[in-house]
What does this fold into?
Amino acid sequence: MPELPEVERARSVIADHALDREIVAVDDSDTWVCRPHAPGEIAAALVGRTIERACRRGKSMWCELSGDGPVLGLHLGMSGRIIVDEFSGGDPQPRSMGPADSPWTRFSVRFADGGELALFDKRRLGRVVLDPNIDRLGPDAMEISRDEFRRRIGRSHAPLKARLLDQHAIAGVGNLLADQTLWLARQAPARPASDLADAELDELRRVLRRATRSAIELGGVHTGSFITHRTPGGVCPRCQAPLGRATVGGRTTWFCTAEQAYAP
It folds into this structure.
């Protein structure tokens, strides 16, 4: 599932290749992906305008456009990619067909110069919506300050991984990024977040930012040094101890049984 790094790569594709291009047509006929909007409603709000800025908070992405009118929200769901002409970003799985001829193109924008922006989504779990509500999201995981991180993570009695996954507390961390970060920081996923001292929280924030930057640069959270070892019989790539598996925060969680053990 796309997490912050994949969404940031998709946002960058829009920022690098779709700005200042006039929109002349929109295909918003997929009533599931474009719900609750009726066919033609998004098109009426976009045609004649240009994308001025591509924005993101956590896993949520939106485009600010010229003139008066709503912003365009784009959510990748579990397998979505944003494609602008021959450039694409989002879910790391490669696509086999271009947006113009693909049955998996769920939404598209055509520009006056003949180019196109499309949401490519095999599983049809992405969303396109006008004026998306992001008010309930916490600060972005890449931008949160030290003091805010201490307050939002360290004051909760929830398991540490569950708190990292709470998008109201901090936005953008998904299951893989959480496992990668906690392994790098040698922190137990089930440890109560409130047990961490300020110095531990500061280090966790630094590690999270570092893991996120690496995933953005390398192509997604699947590139994390711990991720490929998260299999039955897997061992820690750092100390060779067996990996443990548990459910934390409702999500399957992998951890090093030697370096991330937690006993209440």
User: Anything to note?
Assistant: The chain is about 25% helix and 25% strand. The mean pLDDT is 94.
